[in-house]
Amino acid sequence: MKRLFGVIGDPISHSMSPMMHNDAFKNLKIDGYYQPFRITPEDLATAIKGMKVIGIEGFNVTIPHKTSILPLVDRLDPLAKAIGAVNTVVRDGNDYVGYNSDGLGFICSLQERWKKDFKNEKTLIIGAGGAAKAIYYSLASVGVKKIDISNRTTARAQGLVDHCPFKCETNILDFPQARQNLGAYTLVIQTTSIGMSPNINEIPFSLENMLPNTHAVDIIYNPLETKFLTEARQKGATTQNGIGMFVHQGAIAFEKWTGIKPDIIRMENIVMQHLGG
Ligand code: ATR
After folding, report:
1. Quick check: 12 and 36 in contact, CB under 8 A?
2. What digits encode the pLDDT tens for the residues 38-67?
3. What is the dihedral of CA 158, 162, 168, 171, to 10 degrees?
4. Which one, out of 12, 43, 210, 224, has a CA that is 20 to 30 A from the CA of 239?
């Protein structure tokens, strides 16, 4: 019998995870199958019970279930608990254990593309939503001591910082302040939905003060180059889009389920082909 895996979300038809994981199973000669399941919020609890009954070995969790699944798993990894969101569930005996591989996926993709010791860089995160929280908490959990945050709603950024269980020194800036002080940062991470297709001409704020020694990351991958990345590139910064984070969060999940590291380049090529890059 095939080993069964999947992803739950609503909507789910656009998900690139099935093609990425199913190719990895084939490539590694693992008799597994990864199925997308559209699950509405009302059906989430029933769906998780169903997963157990069917014996799914693991699954990913995406919008809108990343937070509401917390009380439905049997155990929570400490980082997922701190972030308050689960994107990967792993069967361990009779238990389902919730993990969050988004932030660690971000860190892996950063290390792959930017060869610097990111722990000692001056870092700014733009945004304070779920993705920003996963990245900030994960960076803080691996020992980054100082990360500033800029968000439209500064109170939300303050809440994010206040709830972080890992020690990290942070200044909170509004967008005009971040724009003004941008030259102080060598790593700038854009986590908001600003600039995502179809709003491709939008940017959180002008990057006129960005210096050429900066590494700019946008976690968006549609479009492959957001206006934020175009402006950063024009300022001489090195840039990276969100494909690496997406691929690495998937690879971390795959390894948790199977014990085998998948071929990252192959996963990335599949995603790129799908996005027409
Ligand atoms: P995600 O889980 O993808 O991070 P989210 O939790 O809804 O999504 O967070 C969205 C982020 O994008 C927030 O930082 C949000 O800013 P606010 O906290 O001020 O709402 C930011 N964002 C989205 N649209 C925005 C816009 N038009 N202008 C400024 N910020 C925006």
Report:
1. yes
2. 999 999 999 999 999 999 999 999 999 999
3. 20
4. 12
pLDDT tens profile 7-47: 999 999 999 999 999 999 999 999 999 999 999 999 999 99
* 170: region left, alpha or beta (phi > 0 left; psi from -120 to 50 alpha): beta
- Ligand 1 contact via 213 beta carbon (within 6 Å): no
Q: Beta partners for 15?
A: none
Mutate to test the pocket of ligand 1, among 86, 152, 174 (most ligand atoms within 8 A of CB): 152
CA dihedral 50, 54, 56, 57 (to 10 degrees): 120
CA distance 207 to 214: 11
Residues designated as active site: 66
For residue 259, what is the DSSP state?
A: S
118 DSSP assignment? G
